[in-house]
Amino acid sequence: QVQLVESGGELVQAGGSLRLSCAASGRTFSSYAMGWFRQAPGKEREFVAAISWAGGSTYYADSVKGRFTISRDNTKNTGNLQMNSLSPEDTAVYYCAARDSPILSESWYYTPRRYAYWGQGTQVTVSS
Questions:
Q1: 36: closest CA among 69, 62, 3?
Q2: Positions in the chain whose pLDDT score sits under 50
Q3: In 3D, which of 32, 38, 36 has the Cα closest to residue 55?
């Protein structure tokens, strides 16, 4: 089992940048696929970005492609989400998630229920 703790969320003006971090503890983080999801008030949790266990493959929601970058450092058991050109539509609670079982389909990266472990979330608020 792995424990995840997000950090880095805060209030930022539109056009600004933030870097979210996800610190992992417990079992070997390097064997886990990792994803970032977000949930705005009154909306379902949605996929933002994901990265394979070795970092060789990355996936992004269309809404963030070109603005957000997901990365991981398995030597430090951390994952990161660099967010640039933020807009009020990016306001949400951001969650990191991890999966230790093999990913059998690319679609699994995008699906919240495919992830067994979740952090508590960090609030990102973008003001206009």
A1: 69
A2: none
A3: 32
**CA of 94: how far to CAs of 49, 56, 64, 113, 116, in Å?**
11, 23, 13, 16, 16
- Residue 84 is classified by DSSP as -
Residues in a beta bridge with 6: 22
Q: What are the tens digits of pLDDT across the range 2-11?
A: 899 999 999 9
Cross-strand partners of 21 = 7, 80
- DSSP annotation of 107 reads H
Cα Rg for the chain, rounded, in angstroms? 14
Work out whether the CA dihedral 52, 32, 63, 86 comes out positive or negative.
Answer: negative
Looking up tokens 């957000």, which residue turns up? 68
Residue 53 and residue 122 in contact, taking contact as beta carbons nearer than 8 Å: no
Helical (H) or strand (E) element with 109:
helix 106-109
Predicted local confidence at residue 104, as pLDDT = 86
